[in-house]
Amino acid sequence: MRIESLLSEITLDLLSAGISNARQEACWLVSQLLGDDPIRVPCCGGAEFPSALEVTLRKRVSRRKSGEPLQYIMGEVEFHCVNLLIGPGVLIPRPETEQLVELALSRLALDGPIVDLCTGSGAIALALSASRPARTIFGTDISEDALSWAFRNRDRLKASNVTFLQGDLFQPLPADLHFALVTANPPYVSQDEYNKLDPTVKDHEPITALLAKDNGLQIIRDIARQAKPRLLPDGWLVMEIGETQGEKVRQILLDENYTLIDIKKDYSGRDRFALAKR
To answer: In what order do the strands lie in the sheet with 114-117?
Structure first.
């Protein structure tokens, strides 16, 4: 089948499943199998799509129509300056979290190690590693499944300055280790918000990476409390937060006696990041 005809057919198929950016997703699915740039694929309309790949393509389209996230189907995602392997059992890195990396880098004035809590696929830790390869960086996560992806990504990227450890927040780290920077994209979704999530998220991504008690604030509170004594003097805490949590998180950080507290908005104008200095 010609690529042009195949793209049109897949686009209509995805549209029938309620996928709004069906044409773009069709291009991504086709281009990955062809090993080509998705921008170029529509320009290859007269070429034949290899018949040997068609069964694989149609299976992937079927998975997408069932609601499985596109990133799981493709098995990878671009994040900041790194390409990450991704799949079931780990949170899919979001574009807004790339902004957290930029904010963290802008606060990295001290010498000393970095730790990324709730590291998941290792996205933040590995992006920081790519930008600061001489730094010692740790990533911790309570989920063995999530860390399996982090290990794969670290090895694939040859990020020898990054160490991943399984455990709750600071628990697996040496007690005498102090940090110039603590980053985190913790679970911050409340139960009410979780109930309203799109099925693509709720039915596929791990609940432990999304849902938190106390209206989504429990793990944020834990991080704020535990990070303070683990930061070097003048070290920074940089966290992602929910769009309705800005003032509550500001108060949590005030109660822990942080200074220079700042609630930053994402590129959509929503409260999304909390920054605080020890």
So the answer is: 162-166, 137-141, 114-117, 179-184, 231-240, 271-277, 259-265
